[in-house]
Amino acid sequence: MNQYRTHTCGALRQEHAGQAARLAGWVHRKRDHGNLLFVDLRDQYGLTQCVVDISSPVFKALEAVRPESVVSVTGKVVPRSAETINDKLATGRIELVVAEVEVLSEAAVLPMQVAGEQEYTEETRLTYRFLDLRREKMRDNILLRSQVIASIRRRMWDAGFVEFQTPILTASSPEGARDFLVPSRIHPGKFYALPQAPQQFKQLIMTSGFDRYFQIAPCFRDEDSRADRSPGEFYQLDFEMAFVTQDDVFDTIAPVLQGLFVEFGKGRPVTATPFPRIPYAEALLKYGSDKPDLRNPLLITDVTEAFKGSNFGLFARNIEKGSVVRAIPAPKSADQPRSWFDKLNEWAREQGAGGLGYIQYKDGEARGPIAKNLDPDRVAAIKTATGVSDGDSVFFVCDKETAAAKFAGHVRTRLCDELNLLDRNQFAFCWIVDFPMYERNADTGQIEFSHNPFSMPQGAMEALETMDPLEIKAFQYDIVCNGVELSSGAIRNHRPDIMYKAFEIAGYSKADVEARFGGMLNAFKYGAPPHGGSAPGIDRIVMLLADEPNIREVIIFPMTGKAEDLLMQAPNDVMPRQLKELHIKLDLPKPVAKETGG
After folding, report:
1. Using CB atoms within 10 A as the burial measure, which of 302, 497, 502, 503 is most buried?
2. In sequence order, what are the residues at sequence separation of 6 or more whose Cβ sits closer than 8 angstroms to the Cβ of residue 270?
3. Nearest 5°: CA angle at 438, between 485 and 530?
């Protein structure tokens, strides 16, 4: 017999009745019924009810032990009586009558309870993460993450990919987010950087003659926290393919993702492959976002023409100054009380907008302040353009195109929530394609890359030489699920001549390009295949599958929103001798002097 256990706490069943068994685990909960003491013993695999009679010599030992102490118990498996069967537990038809007990580790008084559903602050949960992880929900999330990663690996292997690990210590890149820098002891004054992504390395793998690469890659970015982004570090399914077009990438990775969500989605419908493709410009127009949540059925419509030169002077004047008007339908809302519309108008003002105009189509009439100031033909044109019916309402946003798209997207989401239209019981995937290659910096007026500078422009060199840069599209794409961007990707620019030209348009000299990206550029000069890939985020995938609103719920040891590890007390101070070895002197900001009252 094993020194600590013969079975896990989730293994015993009715067929084990009459057998001796030894279990080891954590004391989850105790219930003292006077002459009987019930102890729920828990491990990773489940929970078993143990029972001891007051006449037993081990009664006092079990009675004295605190919750979350680790014990090993030996006894006999017996069936539960009919009235005590608990079919919510896999072990709920048996219990273990304890004859021997060994306390392996006594727990101190707990700063947070493991049993039960009590809520705790983020600070408490992350400071005592080892206790938080013992709770059923967290345990299930972390085990789900492990299972998802294992499934991804199997699916990628089956698709002909091979797994490599790329360097963690690499060169700093001026592009993208802030790097985490690592000082070099051997090379005073010089720094490594932790990789924001294995971007250049995976492209170098393609130039080295390997055909399909992937890894579950750790990435490091000095970014602020969001609900769907962990500060500091994250993991992604990084992959790259040689001799492929955009279609080839989609046809290969979409079945991997679709199969993964079918496997772990608990029966929720998943978009069938091929996933729908939505051009970037269309996504901004119809959904007000380049990561649209397709579970929301509302579609935004451009109705600028209906207001141009109209008697609704506010919109008409703004249109003359370059604004557009976007319309967002609100099905079956025309009967809502005036207070409902006023509440949305006030919400819009809180968001920084001037307000939220609307038309109610009710009983064959158009009602509301806007309808009173528009010709009937214009009101009818709006109804036709938006596809609404009698009993529906339409809300309007008027602003410059980019701002209007963004706020119309917020309105779309708010109306969906207000009217309870979101179908939460599905995973809705889409590709966002045809991203612009360049954009104009609003402050400097300079042409800049709008997305990934290493993407192949659609039309290649001819487009760069003959087209307005702001009209050039790139072979760039995002994969989106339920309004969450899982990944950006691209067909890469593998030709040095096209790369030089692409960067020249964005204001980089040939020397700049060679200084910043010399390693990859030099490799391309010796023959590089057309290649492309992407990198869906592991954390975000698991967050969606676990139906969690915050990414920290699926990361085993996350940081706080301020990028602090409360458990390990990081970041922390280091010894002066360590700084000396690294040839570093600190130049810390001076504390801000407190004002004193007069």
Report:
1. 502
2. 258, 261, 262, 426, 427, 429
3. 75
Per the CB < 8 A criterion, the answer to whether 69 and 106 are in contact is: yes
Average pLDDT, the chain: 94
Q: How far apart are CA 271 and CA 79, in angstroms?
A: 46
Report the 10 Å Cβ neighbour count for 514. Answer: 14
C-alpha dihedral, 419 to 422 to 425 to 426, nearest 10°: 160
Report whether pLDDT(519) > 90: no
Measured CA to CA, the distance from residue 179 to residue 512 in angstroms comes to 19
Using an 8 Å Cβ cutoff, are 38 and 98 in contact? no
Tokens 């949960």: give the residue: 125
pLDDT at 363 over 80: yes
Distance from C-alpha of 580 to C-alpha of 310, rounded to nearest angstrom? 72
Question: For residue 595, what pLDDT is reported?
Answer: 58
Residue 297: per-residue pLDDT: 97
Alpha helices for 46-180 (secondary structure H): 59-64, 122-127, 129-132, 136-158
User: Cα(30)–Cα(44) distance, rounded to whole angstroms?
Assistant: 18
Per the structure block, which two tokens stand in for 524?
A: 């391309």
Measure the CA–CA gap between 438 and 451, rounded to whole angstroms.
Answer: 8
Long-range contacts from 54-58, C-beta under 8 angstroms, 24+ separation: 56/98, 56/99, 58/98, 58/99, 58/100, 58/101
Degrees (nearest 5) of the Cα angle 54, 58, 59? 30
Burial grade of 238 (CB within 10 A; 0-12, 13-18, 19 or more)? buried
The DSSP code for 179 is P
CB 87 within 8 A of CB 44: no
Q: Which of 463, 478, 454 is nearest to 531 (CA)?
A: 454
134: left (phi over 0), alpha (psi -120 to 50) or beta: alpha
- The 8-class DSSP code of residue 226 comes to B
Q: Which of 223-227, 305-309, 568-572 has the lowest mean pLDDT?
A: 223-227
Diameter over CA atoms, the chain: 93
Q: Beta strand 46-53 with 94-105: parallel, antiparallel or unpaired?
A: parallel
For every residue of 14-45, which 3-state class applies, written as one string? HHHCCCEEEEEEEEEEEEECCCEEEEEEEECC
Task: Find residue 431's DSSP bridge partners.
Answer: 277, 479
> What b/e sequence results for 534-567 when a residue is b if at least 16 CB atoms lie within 10 Å of its CB, and e otherwise?
bbbbbbbbbbbbbebebbbbbbeebbeeebbbbe
